[in-house]
């Protein structure tokens, strides 16, 4: 029997919905009794409920008519499931309310897990509200009482089909209509993010007297309004606002009219020529024409705003910017990163006034919440427009639904031809849709958008099919469903398209996003885009896939069906990053910071994980250093290092930067700064601050690595000329040769210090400092075989293959690390449960083999076994540390190798000390 608190905790990445989904996915029956059920609470669970229906898991749900809060649409949705019975407990004529919040889950072992607390089946209660719930596992006494009470409620409640029509009528009569318009607000005020921008713009433009600045703001966060508030602070007489489409210019002008009541506003486009207004809103196509912009003096405007400024590399923008010389140029974009390597940052003097990305916007509640569903696509290929695919799409969009009275959807397709065919087929199914592309006129686009969003038109449109014309700029707040029918090749484009539905609107609580996921190589871009983590660290991506609802900010939710999840995992495993990928990431970072990035800059700006860069460097045939990589990435880079200096940097890159311990880094830092250090003093510092086990032996191991005695003769020969330190008794000194090199070449000094400082920060950020069982391994962290030998503190760098038994003369321990690749052989390495795994030794082996005898008799020899596990070879060279294991049930057998040869071997069951964590178990065994 166990109990624990279940709550929404942003700091700890915890949400109530995650626990409920987990319990639902692992039950054989469920019962729910809650006072309130809303559409926003049911929608995030739809994928889970669908799975339960397919598995024929029975469920009972009771809610009430208390305060007429539960939404009929949500109740009808639940009642559609064949496996779920829904009842309504009526308090209409009683003197008491109905305020229960309980979730009951029957398990395979006939025990029950029960959640009781404060969370109703509503969106915020499951994701963000301050809620207290207790999860009770296998508490027989309380289970019997709760089941008895549930049955009493159930017997008194009314089957939903017998009362839903009457309840819905009463519900509608009790709703209070709150009209939310601009005019109803006493004063239009900026939000906190906009206030931050206003303050920073004032500082840059007035106090620092800068001439240009960049405002990076996620789609839907109100950057146009923010610019208006900010420019009002600058008090300009004349303003030019540039956009790339007339529709956006009109929207911007409406926004500015709300802020500037005393200024005349005008459009310059194909249809309007309001040349003499105070504030002019123009398309770049028109303003770039000489006969238009030459009507104005180059210094005519106090401020020029360029919206969607990532297009500014185009000739039309350049003509305008080369002609005008305003008091201040304000560039605005959600995505300054460019695939064509044009440097938007340089265009604005690398002066970022304010930056708010999607994650920040969600954290500040600037956007509408979304419920994202990754749905497996049954398409034969990316261009499939078959009837079976259309039926599959329609089935899912109708199942997952939308928030509001009717659907107002955008569908992003692969090609214009696809969008046209799919639109026609949707119309054949009774929908009213249209395909729009760049060939449609501005008037056509505006007319179709009006019909899409209007609730009063006689001829409404359900969906607009498009490829990319609605990726950015166009403000369609009423969108309540986004459909993605294309491969995700770019996290930037994914975010742009997702952003189309994230603008807040009246009577819109959330937007449903359906992403139809095919078997594409770049599927790993989806969790990168949703998480906003651009490090490309595969383990972080996998962790988000498993724990997405806890990790996504705010009330938004992310769910994947089984097939789409497996496709993404496969894409993550097989993702390979070539020189072009690194060049693109490098150029984006260089453009942003305005100089050639240091190695640490990638980590500082969350551009790439340092380990990813080092893995690429290790696999290169070139000298394995960051400066050598820079030579390949940037023709402007000048390599200022001698051959010997590069050897030093290569040694640091391969053996010190991320050796999974802090000792080598601190030793080097201390001797560089102070020339000498006392081993005891540093060991004491590490003991107090890093909690390392057996620090004395670890210090000895670290020193042996830096003086190279740890390495085998071939490696010692390779690094023969490298000398970092000397040691005499308890004192370590910097080697004169190393000290001289640092003093003679500032570039070398800067590179070494940058790598050491980054190594220390990276270690601190990625290490919990919780070590298990007298070894410096952290449970479920990843280690290479060289890391294992290092952290076991072996005095030499002995290789580890499948396993090795070795006694350490430094501390007398006999240790056997076991490395298992789970998918290496079919059904050989297999979890029987979360605490037992089968293991086959190398071949040929029998009970008479020396190492097998040692394993069987491990207790007499006091051998300690440590298990390291990876899913398959696509995982790379690193293994998850699973903790200590003990071998049981040895059995002689045979194994057929990859050549077809049958060899004798020995099988064991390994008993883990710690049950495998759920996400690791699910990932390894899926």
TrEMBL record:
Keywords: ATP-binding, Helicase, Hydrolase, Nucleotide-binding. Residues 204-354 form the Helicase ATP-binding domain. CDD domains: DEXHc_RE_I_III_res, PLDc_N_DEXD_b2, SF2_C_EcoAI-like. It comes from the Archaea. This is ATP-dependent RNA helicase SrmB. Pfam families: DUF3427 (PF11907), DUF8090 (PF26350), Helicase_C (PF00271), PLDc_2 (PF13091), ResIII (PF04851). GO terms for cellular component: cytosol. The gene is srmB. Transmembrane segments: none annotated. One of its GO terms (molecular function) is hydrolase activity. The keyword ATP-binding applies. Its EC number is 3.6.4.13. Residues 396-552 form the Helicase C-terminal domain.
């Amino acid at each position: 029997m166990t109990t624990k608190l279940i709550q929404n905790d942003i700091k700890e990445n915890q949400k109530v919905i995650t626990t409920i989904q987990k319990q639902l996915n692992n039950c054989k029956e469920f019962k729910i009794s809650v006072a309130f059920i809303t559409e926003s609470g049911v929608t995030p669970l739809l994928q889970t409920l669908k799975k339960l229906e397919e598995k024929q898991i029975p469920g009972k749900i009771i809610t009430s008519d208390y305060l007429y809060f539960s939404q009929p649409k949500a109740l009808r949705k639940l009642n559609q499931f064949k496996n779920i019975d829904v009842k309504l407990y009526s308090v209409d004529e009683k003197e008491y309310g109905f305020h229960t919040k309980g979730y009951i889950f029957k398990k395979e072992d006939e025990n029950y897990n029960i959640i009781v607390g404060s969370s109703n089946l509503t969106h915020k209660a499951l994701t963000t509200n301050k809620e207290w719930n207790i999860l009770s596992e296998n508490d027989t006494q309380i289970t019997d009482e709760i089941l008895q009470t549930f049955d009493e409620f159930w017997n008194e409640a009314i089957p939903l089909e017998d009362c839903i029509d009457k309840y819905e009528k009463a519900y509608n009569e009790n709703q209070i209509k709150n009209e939310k318009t601009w005019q109803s607000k006493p004063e239009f005020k900026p939000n906190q993010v906009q206030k931050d921008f206003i303050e920073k713009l004032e500082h840059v433009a007035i106090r620092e007297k800068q001439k240009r600045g960049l405002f990076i703001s996620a789609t839907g966060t109100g950057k146009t309004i923010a610019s208006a508030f900010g420019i009002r602070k600058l008090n300009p007489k004349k303003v030019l606002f540039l956009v790339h489409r007339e529709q956006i210019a009109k929207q911007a002008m409406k926004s500015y009219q709300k802020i500037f009541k005393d200024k005349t506003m005008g459009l310059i486009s194909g249809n309007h020529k309001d040349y003499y207004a105070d504030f002019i809103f123009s398309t770049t196509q028109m303003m770039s024409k000489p006969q238009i912009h030459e009507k104005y003096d180059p210094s005519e405007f106090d401020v020029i705003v360029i919206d969607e400024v990532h297009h500014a590399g185009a000739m039309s923008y350049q003509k305008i910017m080369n002609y005008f010389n305003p008091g201040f140029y304000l560039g605005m974009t959600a995505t300054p990163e460019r695939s064509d390597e044009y440097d938007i940052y340089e265009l604005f003097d690398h002066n970022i006034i304010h930056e708010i990305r999607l994650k920040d916007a969600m954290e500040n509640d600037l956007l509408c919440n979304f419920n994202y569903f990754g749905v497996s696509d049954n398409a034969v290929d990316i261009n499939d427009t078959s009837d079976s695919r259309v039926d599959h799409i329609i089935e899912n969009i109708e199942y997952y639904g939308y928030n509001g009275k009717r659907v107002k959807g955008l569908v992003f397709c692969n090609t214009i031809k696809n969008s046209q065919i799919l639109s026609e087929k949707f119309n054949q199914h009774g929908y009213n849709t249209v395909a729009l592309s760049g060939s449609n006129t501005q008037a056509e686009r505006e007319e179709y958008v009006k019909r899409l969003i209007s609730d009063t038109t006689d001829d409404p449109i359900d969906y607009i099919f498009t490829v990319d014309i609605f990726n950015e700029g166009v403000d369609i707040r009423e969108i309540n469903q986004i459909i993605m029918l294309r491969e995700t090749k770019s996290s930037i484009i994914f975010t742009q398209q997702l952003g189309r539905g994230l603008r807040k609107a009246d009577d819109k609580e959330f937007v449903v996003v359906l992403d139809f996921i095919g078997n594409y190589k770049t599927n790993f871009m989806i969790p990168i885009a949703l998480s906003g983590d651009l490090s490309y660290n595969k383990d972080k991506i996998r962790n988000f896939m498993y724990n997405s609802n806890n990790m996504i900010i705010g009330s938004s939710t992310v769910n994947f069906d089984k097939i789409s999840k497996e496709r993404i995992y496969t894409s993550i495993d097989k993702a390979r990053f070539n020189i072009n990928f690194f060049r693109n990431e490098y150029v984006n970072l260089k453009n942003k910071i305005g100089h050639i990035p240091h190695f640490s800059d990638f980590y500082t700006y969350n551009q790439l994980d340092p380990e990813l860069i080092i893995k690429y460097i290790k696999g290169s045939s070139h000298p394995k250093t960051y400066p050598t990589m820079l030579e390949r990435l940037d023709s402007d880079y000048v390599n200022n290092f001698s051959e010997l200096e590069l050897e030093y940097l290569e040694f640091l890159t391969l053996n010190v930067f991320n050796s999974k311990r802090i000792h080598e880094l601190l030793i080097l830092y201390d001797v560089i700064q102070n020339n000498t250090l006392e081993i005891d003093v540093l060991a004491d510092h590490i003991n107090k601050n890093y909690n390392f086990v057996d620090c004395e032996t670890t210090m000895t191991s670290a020193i042996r690595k830096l003086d190279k005695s740890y390495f085998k003769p071939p490696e010692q020969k390779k690094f023969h000329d490298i000398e970092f330190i000397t040691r005499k008794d308890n004192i370590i000194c910097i080697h004169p040769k190393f000290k001289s090199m640092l003093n003679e070449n500032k570039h070398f000094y800067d590179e070494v210090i940058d790598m050491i400082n980054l190594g220390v920060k990276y270690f601190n950020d990625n290490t919990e400092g919780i070590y298990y069982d007298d070894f410096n391994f952290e449970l479920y962290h990843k280690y290479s075989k060289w890391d294992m030998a290092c952290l076991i503190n072996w005095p030499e760098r002995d290789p580890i293959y499948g396993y090795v038994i070795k006694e350490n003369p430094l501390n007398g321990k006999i240790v056997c690390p076991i490395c298992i690749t789970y998918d290496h052989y079919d059904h050989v390495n297999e979890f029987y449960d979360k605490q037992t795994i089968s293991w086959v030794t190398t071949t040929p082996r029998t009970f008479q083999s020396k190492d097998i005898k040692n394993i069987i008799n491990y207790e007499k020899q006091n051998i300690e076994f440590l298990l390291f596990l990876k899913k398959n070879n696509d995982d790379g060279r690193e293994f998850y540390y699973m903790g200590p294991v003990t071998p049981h049930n040895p059995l002689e057998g045979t194994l057929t190798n990859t050549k077809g040869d049958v060899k004798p071997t020995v099988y064991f069951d390994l008993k883990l000390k710690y049950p495998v964590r759920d996400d690791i178990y699910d990932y390894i065994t899926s």
